[in-house]
Design brief:
Blueprint (H helix, E strand, L loop, with lengths): L1 H12 L6 E5 L3 H14 L3 E6 L14 H15 L6 E8 L9 H17 L4 E4 L14 H18 L7 E5 L21 H17 L9 E5 L5 E3 L2 E3 L20 E4 L7 H9 L2 E6 L1 H21 L7 H11 L15 H7 L12 H13 L7 H4 L5 H8 L6 H13 L17
Parallel strand pairs: 1-2, 1-10, 2-3, 3-4, 4-5, 5-6, 6-9, 9-10
Antiparallel strand pairs: 7-8
Helix pairs in contact: 2-3, 2-14, 4-5, 5-6, 8-14, 9-11, 13-14
Length: 431
């Protein structure tokens, strides 16, 4: 499965604008839509879990790495996605989830976590030790981050059933305190080539010092900032004509590509441009759950207009849940960005996604979908809430249903990531 990624990297380094989408979500409906769309297009897909979502303590999803692997695999099999085209990835695997503890304790937890990830079949491993632990700066320097990354890489290699199958991603683009910095034109500042070289040099030195020189060719991705970002109520679009020159930083690393995070909500042309600039790994997450939320809010409105709903508006259910437990949004939404209620429901960071697994939210969504069962959904009615492209996509699967409309919304959000040159040339393995 790592061969899929290495093929994409090789082609991108040869100058082909090849890239693969990496979906970072634990939402079952979103994963179902993404895997079904990839299967329909015949494309491989990376599905990632973060260290906060999934770890040996359960993370905020309640899943351990083996649970998440089984969860994704079951959905893939259910929608007919070929398992050999599925790559499981671990994102920001480091001490972050335990950063309030001293570094030694947090790293001890990170070692257990990364061993669990690779034993569960995750092969794309993002080694991110950039955030400080108790008593340390918010962001540690390259040398410290690289030393800790090498430590975790050694654990991964020792624990993996097939160490050669691992592909490591290093670096981070976590914004500094106060958010990502903008330049004079109001655009997000990209990582400089010199900063990228420094990160690579620090990791080379740390891996050699840890006795992992032979593992260096397995470092396949470098996370840097190309100039894409989104704040709660604004998308910072990457200037398409700009080339930050980051390809040049990879000249001594022939097996390495660039990885872009926070690419959500960018214009379709951006993803092709990112691939041309060397970003063969392109991450997406909140934009997908945002699309799902928008679709079910629209369905809820239609159900109330049609007189089919026998429960309060879904937005009111979610508002109560978010106010009762503000931990997932209070540090992310602020009055200066606009009305807090508006941000809670429509913010691009989509912090509402943390509340959908709650029992009350699950019951409300189930009741909403039940309200549409057996109902004829005429297109004039649906045009009140959905754009024509979404209705056309939903109609491809047959008569309109609530589920097909929600799935169509997600697949349209993912479509721009499937570049014409993204299809893998890796042949299906012999059985």
């Amino acid at each position: 499965m790592a061969d899929i990624l290495r093929d994409i990297i090789r082609r991108n380094r040869l100058g082909e604008p090849a890239a693969i989408p990496s979906v970072c979500t634990a939402h079952p409906d979103v994963l179902r839509a993404c895997l079904a769309r990839a299967a329909r297009l015949g494309r491989p897909l990376v599905v990632e879990a973060t260290s906060n979502q999934v770890n040996q303590d359960g993370g905020y999803t309640g899943m351990r790495p083996a649970d998440f692997a089984g969860f994704v695999t079951n959905i893939a099999e259910d929608v007919g996605f070929p398992i050999w085209q599925l790559v499981l990835g671990g994102d920001h695997l480091g001490p972050q989830a335990w950063r309030r503890q001293p570094a030694a304790a947090a790293m001890g937890k990170a070692r257990v976590m990364i061993a669990d990830y690779v034993r569960a079949g995750f092969t794309k491993i993002h080694l991110d030790c950039s955030e400080g632990c108790a008593g340390e700066p918010a962001q540690v320097g390259d040398a410290t981050a690289a030393a800790r990354a090498a430590d975790l890489a050694g654990v991964a290699v020792s624990a993996a059933p097939d160490p050669a199958a691992l592909l490591f991603v290093i670096g981070t683009e976590v914004p500094p305190p106060g958010g990502a910095r903008m330049d004079e034109a109001g655009d997000i500042r990209p990582t400089t080539p010199n900063a990228a070289r420094a990160t690579l040099a620090a990791h080379r030195a740390a891996f050699v010092s840890a006795g992992l020189e032979t593992v260096l060719p397995q470092i396949g991705g470098l996370v840097v900032q190309p100039g894409v970002e989104f704040s709660p109520m604004r998308v910072h679009h990457m200037p398409l004509e700009r080339d930050p020159g980051l390809r040049a930083a990879l000249e001594d690393w022939p097996h390495l590509c660039l990885e872009a995070h926070s690419t959500d909500y960018q214009s379709p042309a951006c993803f092709q441009r990112l691939a041309e600039l060397g970003f063969a790994f392109q991450k997406v997450g909140p934009a997908l759950t945002f699309a799902w939320r928008a679709a079910i809010y629209a369905l809820d409105q239609l159900a109330h207009i049609a007189g089919w709903a026998d429960q309060p508006p879904l937005a009111e259910v979610m508002e109560r849940l978010m106010l009762a437990n503000p931990a997932h949004w209070s540090d992310h939404y602020h009055p200066e960005a606009g009305d807090l209620r508006v941000q809670r429901h429509f913010g691009l960071a989509d912090r509402i996604r943390y509340y959908w697994p709650m029992p009350q939210a699950q019951a409300a969504v189930s009741a909403l979908f039940a309200a549409f069962e057996g109902k004829i959904l005429p297109r004039p009615m649906l045009e009140q809430a959905f754009r024509p492209a979404l209705l056309d996509r939903a109609a491809e699967a047959g008569a309109f249903t609530a589920d097909r409309l929600a799935q169509a919304a997600i697949s349209l959000a993912l479509d721009p990531y499937f570049l014409d040159t993204a299809a893998t040339r890796t042949l299906e393995p012999d059985r």
